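Example for tutorial group B:
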């Protein structure tokens, strides 16, 4: 039995961050054939919930690059590698020293999230925290009010490209941290930053998912650096045309562009879904 694992942004989703009607119908065809599929994404559960709702994703799902596994049937997380207080302190200091505001995500006892941050420094940070507050049902609090025993899942930031790259250099020197970054707005000098514990990865997550589901083979789809560990762990890996060069080099093959429903079209051919 095979497990199909999808990255979301730039992969299964189109440019509007939606599952298209054609892709949705493809997922239904997979389900009818009893072909198992799930997601492994850098998003939080709350950031993906509205997108996945109504598209039949009943199996366990990996969030924040494998930091957490969500079990939708039991409505619970199984947590992976969390950041320690000292690791968080190093990230916060690196961000603040480079003029970037860290947004610290924590997991509460009821599996809800609270985001803590120091005073905001730029207009784009204000826009980000407003988006978090609107799009995700999370509490937003000052960093100095974060409890000492908080369960810290990850840190996000957004800032000028040079500032984010400086934080990346600092974080990458820390042995138990891993950081990913990318362009936040096309044509503008803003980049996003995502930092979590190095023991968490999409590759580790799909090994956990294989064991949970009793499946032997994994076919995965992804477009960014945070998918490389997943590609290394999978039996087959496919990159859409819009993927970065490192992912394309690591892939079994390069397929259609994400905004042309490349993944859905590949799956229909790969599993002969259009044939009676």
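The residue assignment follows.
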């Amino acid at each position: 039995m095979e497990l199909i694992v999808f990255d979301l942004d730039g992969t299964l989703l189109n440019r509007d961050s939606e599952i298209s009607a054609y892709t949705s119908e493809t997922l239904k065809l997979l389900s009818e054939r009893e072909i198992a599929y799930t997601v492994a994404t850098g998003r939080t559960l709350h950031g993906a919930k509205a997108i996945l709702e109504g598209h039949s994703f009943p199996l366990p799902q990996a969030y924040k690059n494998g930091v957490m596994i969500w079990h939708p049937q039991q409505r619970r997380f199984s947590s992976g590698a969390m950041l320690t207080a000292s690791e968080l302190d190093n990230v916060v200091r690196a961000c603040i020293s480079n003029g970037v505001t860290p947004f610290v995500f924590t997991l509460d006892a009821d599996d809800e999230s609270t985001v803590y941050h120091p005073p905001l420094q730029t207009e784009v940070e204000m826009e980000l925290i407003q988006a978090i507050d609107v799009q995700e049902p999370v509490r937003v609090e000052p960093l100095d009010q974060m409890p000492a025993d908080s369960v810290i899942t990850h840190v996000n930031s957004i800032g000028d490209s040079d500032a984010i790259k400086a934080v990346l250099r600092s974080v990458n020197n820390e042995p138990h941290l891993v950081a990913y970054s990318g362009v936040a707005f096309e044509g503008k000098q803003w980049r996003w930053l995502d930092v979590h514990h190095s023991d968490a990865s999409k590759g580790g997550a799909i090994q956990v998912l294989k064991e949970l589901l009793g499946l032997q083979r994994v076919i995965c789809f992804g477009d960014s650096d945070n998918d490389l560990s997943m590609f290394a762990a999978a039996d087959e890996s496919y990159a859409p045309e819009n993927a970065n060069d490192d992912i394309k080099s690591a892939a079994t093959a390069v397929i259609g562009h994400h905004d042309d429903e490349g993944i859905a079209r590949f799956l229909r051919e790969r599993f002969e879904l259009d044939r009676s």
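The first strand starts at residue 2 and ends at 6. Compare this with the pattern of hydrophobic and polar residues in the output above.
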